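hiii, so i know i said id send this last week but things got crazy w the move. better late than never?? heres the sequnce for the chain we talked about at the cafe, plus the structure i predicted for it. fair warning i was half asleep when i ran it
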Amino acid sequence: MYYEHCIEQASGGFGEYQSQPINGEGWEDEGALEIEMAQGAADQGAELIELVDGVDEAIDIRGRIHNEPGRVFALVWDDGRVAYTGITEVA
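okay and structure toks below
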């Protein structure tokens, strides 16, 4: 099953982030969850961008996330705001 994660700055600071699953049912299809996340971002006026090497639209926070999910995404708004989310697989 695949679960969406909320990623926020860690309370201790130091440029670190923390991740926790968003309450809800898991998804059997990772692609369907990604489509749902992209639609949710679009509904908020943002673009969902996966953080991979070479992405310039958001700061790459991978490696600085406690409980880091397998895939990390940025929601990027035209006004420069950025929020982070992710997908993790749980057997």
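btw The chain has a mean pLDDT of 92. thought thatd interest u
miss u guys!!
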